[in-house]
Amino acid sequence: MARDKVVLAYSGGLDTSVAVKWINETYDLDVIAYTCDLGQGQDIEAIRQKALRTGAVEAIAEDVRNLFVDFFCIPSLMAGALYEGKYPLATALGRPLIAQLMVRVAKQHGAVAVAHGCTGKGNDQVRFDVTFQTLNPALKIIAPVREWKWTRTQEVEYANKHGIEIEATKKSIYSTDQNLWGRSIEAGTLEDPWIEPASDAFQWTVDPQLAPNEPEEVTIEFERGRPIALNGTAMGAAELIASLNTIAGRHGVGRIDHVENRLVGIKSREIYEAPAAVVLHEAHREIEFLTLSKEALRFKTYVSQQYSDLIYNGLWFSALHQDLMAFVVSNQQYVSGTARVKLFKGHAAISGRKSEHSLYRHELATYDEGDQYDSSAAQGFIKIHGLSQTTQAKFQMLTGAGARRLELPSIIPPSDEIR
Ligand code: ARG
Fold it and tell me: DSSP secondary-structure letter at 410?
C-alpha cells in the first residue's frame, strides 16, 4: 500500500535534505518536496533535482516572483510596513505565501501533512504553522529541525550515514534567507550586537566607504502608491525591484543593523540588505508627504505599525489585515507622482518630488509674488488656537512665583512593603 504523503518546504540545504530521509524514517511518510522562486537567485530546477536524488517521491518547483511582489511586497510598501521602523520584512512576507502554496499542493496530492525546516527559536516557525493551521487545520505539521534537536555534527553524521549530499563548499557561518525584497543575515559573529558586521555578511551591497565617489540619481514614479516606472521607463514591479537592488546595492544603500524583538520573546541582532525596499520606502513616503493631508499622514503611521507587527507575527491571513488593507488602498488613491532619490555612499536621500495631486501649493507657501494665503486671518486664528493655554496661565498660574510644583509619588513601593 502506498504511504501517506507530506509536503515539505525544501530549500536544498542540509537541514531540509536531511529532513526528507528523517521524515521517511520517523513518520513513515513519502515526501513531496516543494520549492518556489521568490527571487532568491537560486536555480530552483537544480534544487528540484536534488530533492529527487535525496529521496523525495515527487518534487515541485515554481516561479512565484510575480505573486510575491504583487500581493506581498507592494502592498507592504503601500502600507509603509517597516518592522520597528527598520526592517522591510522580506523574510516575514515570504512565509505566508510559501505556506499557502504548500497547502494547495497538499490538497492537489492528497497529502496528510506539511513540513518545514524552521528551528524552535525563531519567528518563521510561527508564520508557517499559523498559516497552515488557518488554511487547513486538518494537516499535520512536522518541523524536523525543531523536533530532532541535534547538534550540527550529529546532523552531518546522519547525512553521511544515509548518503545525503553535503555541499562541498564550506557552510557559511551565518544563517541567511533571501528573496527579491531583501536578504536576512543572522548568527555567527553577528550575535554580539557590539561587533560591526564583517564584510562577508553582505552580498547585495558594497561597503559604503568603497562605493563610487559620484552620486547617482534615480527617479521612481508611483501610481496610487505602487511603483510603476524607474528612471522614466515603465516596468513591472518585479523587474523594477530587481533593477533597483542592483543600482542601489552598488552605492552601498540598503544595509540595516537591527536589534529586533522577536515574537517568541527573544531580542536578536539581525542584519538586512534591502537596497530596493529601502529606496522605495523612502521615495514612497516622500510622495505621501506631498499628497496626504496632515491628519491622514498621522493616522497612517499608526496603521503602518499595526500592519508591520501583524506581518512580522505571522497573521497575514487575518481579518484585521484585510481591514487595514482596505484603509491603505483608500488612503493611497492620490499617492501618485515621481520622486528623485540620490544614492551616495550608503545613503538614499530625497532630492525632489512632484505630483499632479500635490497638496503642496506654491500659491499658499510662497513668500514671493502670487501669494494667495490670507495672512490677516492668522492673528485671529492664533488667539483661538492658544486660548485654552492662555486661560490656564491666567487662572492657574502655570509660571512665576505662585506656580504649583508637582510632587511625584514613586510608582514602586519600597521592597519591604511587597514582601
Ligand atoms: N529576523 C527576521 C524575521 O524574523 C529574519 C529571519 C530570517 N531567517 C534566517 N534564517 N536568517 O523575519
Answer: P
Q: How far apart are CA 394 and CA 337, in angstroms?
A: 48
Which of 354, 384, 406 finishes a domain? 354
Of 11, 38, 116, 177, the residue with max ligand 1 atoms within 8 A of its CB, to mutate for a pocket test, comes to: 177
pLDDT tens, position by position, 68-85: 999 999 999 999 999 999
- Tell me how far apart the alpha carbons of residues 79 and 97 are, in angstroms, rounded to a whole number: 18
Is 302 domain-assigned?
Answer: no
Answer whether residue 374 is part of any domain: no
Pair 22, 148: CB distance under 8 Å: yes
- Which domain CATH number covers 276? 3.90.1260.10
Distance 184 CA to ligand 1 centre (A): 6
Q: Does some domain include residue 321?
A: no
| Judgement on whether residues 268 and 232 belong to the same structural domain of the protein | yes
Nearest to 255 by CA among 310, 309, 204: 204
Q: Note whether 238 and 102 are same-domain residues.
A: no
Q: How far apart are CA 191 and CA 287, in angstroms?
A: 37
Instruction: Indicate which residues carry an active-site annotation.
Output: 15, 95, 124, 175
Is residue 359 in some structural domain? no
pLDDT tens, position by position, 152-203: 899 999 999 999 988 755 567 899 999 999 999 999 999 999 999 999 999 9
Query: What's the whole-number mean pLDDT along residues 92-98?
Result: 98
Which residue range(s) make up the domain with 350?
180-292+334-354
DSSP state string for 69-89 = IIIIIHHHHHTT--BTTTB--
Name residues contacting ligand 1 (CB within 6 A): 91-92, 123-124, 175-177, 184, 186, 270
Concatenated DSSP letters of 303-352: HHHHHHHHHHTT-TTSHHHHHHHHHHHHHTTT--EEEEEEEETTEEEEEE
Domain CATH code at residue 68? 3.40.50.620
Total-model pTM: 0.94
Instruction: Count CA atoms within 13 Å of residue 103 on its CB side.
Output: 18
Residues 167 and 201 placed together within one structural domain of the fold: no
